[in-house]
Amino acid sequence: VQLAESGGGLVQAGGSLRLSCAASGSIFSINAMGWHRQAPGKQRELVAAITSGGVTDYRDSVKGRFTISRDNAEKAVYLQMNNLKFEDAAVYYCHAVIRTGWATPFRDYWGQGTQVTVSS
Predict the structure, then answer these.
(1) Could you tell me if 94 and 73 are in contact, meaning their C-beta atoms sit under 8 angstroms apart?
(2) Which residues 6+ apart lie within 8 Å of 10 measured at CB?
(3) Using an 8 Å Cβ cutoff, are 79 and 68 in contact?
(4) Are the CB atoms for 85 and 105 separated by under 8 Å?
(5) pLDDT of residue 60
(6) Which residues of the chain have pLDDT under 70?
């Protein structure tokens, strides 16, 4: 199973970026999907998550600015980030809880990360 992220880059404060993540490989089902981020010298933190049924959750600092969505048929999750702030700069990691077979347990999978840089 692989999670491939795209969409990171350099953006001015107040600008927007859209991150995408597609899961591939031997996938039986996907439970929750989400985005985490890690800034230099800080711990990785949850940014947003979405269940297979579409229930979403956001950390307080991004509520009203970020929107998470998913396409179950494409096995993909997206993060629309608007009004980006300096403190949003980090490496963003895609996360998914995946089962590879009907008899196997769900386990966590991570992407390699995509850099988001916010400039003045």
Answers:
(1) no
(2) 117, 118, 119
(3) yes
(4) no
(5) 98
(6) none
